[in-house]
Design a protein that fits this description.
Radius of gyration: 28 Å
Order of helices and strands: HEEEHHHHEHHEHEEH
Strand content: 15-25%
CATH architecture of the domain at 141-235: Roll
Distance between the termini: 23 Å
Shape: elongated
CATH class of the domain at 141-235: Alpha Beta
Number of strands: 7
Structural class: alpha+beta
Number of helices: 9
Length: 272
Amino acid sequence: MKLHSIRFLTSAVIALGSVTAAHAQNSLPINAAASVNGYVITNDVVEQGIQAALSQGQKDSPELRKAVLAKMIEISLLSQQADKDGLANSDRANSQLAMIRQNYLADLELSTYMSKNPVSDADVQAEYNREIASLGSQGAIVEYKVSDIAVATEVDAQAALARIKKGESFDKVAKSVSLAPNKVQGGAVGWVQAGQTLPQIASVLTTLSKGQVSPAPIQMPQGWYLIKLEDKKSSKPPTFEQAKAAIRNGLMQKKQFEFLSQLRQGATIVVR
């Protein structure tokens, strides 16, 4: 589950856990959307379910609102029956409800933190300006279409490079010796920007011509690499209006990551 989203069914279960008994089976109190065997589903709870559905891309409509309420009624009926059948206090129910509660509270904590520490329009503009400035004097985004071969040792990398120099295709050698999952695609990585790669790769990638293979193996923390520049292209950067949504999302993710990192630093975590 992503921490910044609330799944519809999870919201419904949490919400229905707080329904209250109606004073009269055939009458509804103020702010009640429905009553199920005397238990009230409030308008506020229904609205939570609607907002969760909207956050998943559904469009607001009378039909959606009816569907959300109908689903909550179904859940209420089933949960009441589970109570009657003695399932509410089973180990399985308690563990699942504890997980639902934990996920909901995690969502709530993160959304509360973000509401107190929002990404401002000024933040988005500053990040856009920084990214544009990083493009240099050309003011263009350069992308590289890359393939790679990953092996465990320098000896293995030198052997693979020797095969390529003798005329074997990079694709064939990658399928033969690479340890990376993309070996089945002949080592194809796809289009990347130099800044999206580690410095060891970027420093070599930017010197290659189209079709050229790195002249020597590149040492990385996880092994030794050979890279091939399949193609190269330049494009104009997006305008601020085109980029601002993606930039805002990236800054929000960064804030969330930093917040979680602070929590980890102050926590005692033991993993078996």
